[in-house]
Amino acid sequence: MADFGVEAEAGELGFDQERLARIDRYFRPYVDDGRLPGWLITVSRGGRLVHLSTYGHRDVESGRPVEPDTLWRWYSMTKPVTSVAAMMLYEEGALQLTDPVERFIPSFAGLRVFAGGSDLQPVTVPLARPMTVWHLLTHTAGLTYGFLRAHPVDAMLRARGFEWGTPEGFTLADSCDAWAGIPLLFQPGAEWNYSLATDVLGRVVEVASGQSLDAFFRTRIFEPLGMKETGFHVPEERADRLASLYVRGPGGVLSRTGTSGRAQTPPAHLSGGGGLIGPASDYHRFTRMLRGRGAVDGVRLLGSRTVDHMARNQLPGGADLEGFGRRLFAETAFEGTGFGLGFSVVTDPVALHGLASRGEYGWGGAASTAFWVDPREDITVSFFTQLMPSSTYPIRAYLRSLVRQALVD
């Protein structure tokens, strides 16, 4: 971790040092008054770190502090990694964005769509159009999550053991076959809904590549980029560096969740939608690759035009999530925000009601983590903590304004 540190003076990269310090001054009280266990923040410009700070504890009970090498559950910040993997295969001709998902997962050939009734007695209709790889990448596939608790289909997922996890022993292939037997929320392409789509995309990556998802990530993404400590579980020798996972309990008091120790066991289900764990330094390498339009330090994963395309709003007619999506979660704002191939994309900073650049893209995770890449300002930002769910506090909106107010060039 010796190479993970501030690489440039604030003024050299167009920041005011005192204004950058406002970031830490704002977020320290989140720890001091018990809202967060601890945090790590990075800000870079031109691929060089200008701000790296830590505060608080990776484990409150033991008093172990957050350190630069702390390991974090990325949850849905795994999704961009899976999306990059799929686009690497697209570039190689192993798949097309228009390919039906059933080409890779045969059980998806008989999908049905919810049309009424209840979770116990649903009325369904057949697909009007095939579900494609593009639908998975854009979350327009008609899939959902059991934990959303907003629709009878969500209840059907929970009844089959899919809420915050999967049934014991289920592999990714097993899960996809089970999901194929549950109706879709809507016809593919008709709406946007945050969902299990990226987990299904992970299975597409496995079939198209002939490798398990962990093997593809390791050999095709992590090793080339030097992301040496990221994976689907934490080995025993690194377990003491893993941050504990918390929820806001009665009276706002932090309570460590019962899932904190599960990260140390290799999972049967390799979740491309939320399974990765690693240090902030590894995610910084990944965002530097995105900032470099597919390449970093001479290592290229994707062509520059491919990354540009991924970061374009793909929603029909240039719509934003407010007009085309179901407002059921908090990983991004909805107004002035579209969706690309694996990322949210700012389409209208004025409608967003916040300091942002058109074309800025990123995502967040269920434990209140977040990242974004701003091609216009050449900035990448990340925030790591471990508080479930991500809707507990509006951390991301404040972080965005705090970073941008520090720019003075």
From TrEMBL:
Alphabetized GO MF terms: hydrolase activity
Keywords in alphabetical order: Hydrolase
Disordered, as annotated region: 255-274
Domain Beta-lactamase-related: 23-400
InterPro entries in the cross-refs: Beta-lactam-related (IPR001466), Beta-lactam/transpept-like (IPR012338), Diverse_Enzym_Activities (IPR050789)
Name this polypeptide is given: Serine hydrolase domain-containing protein
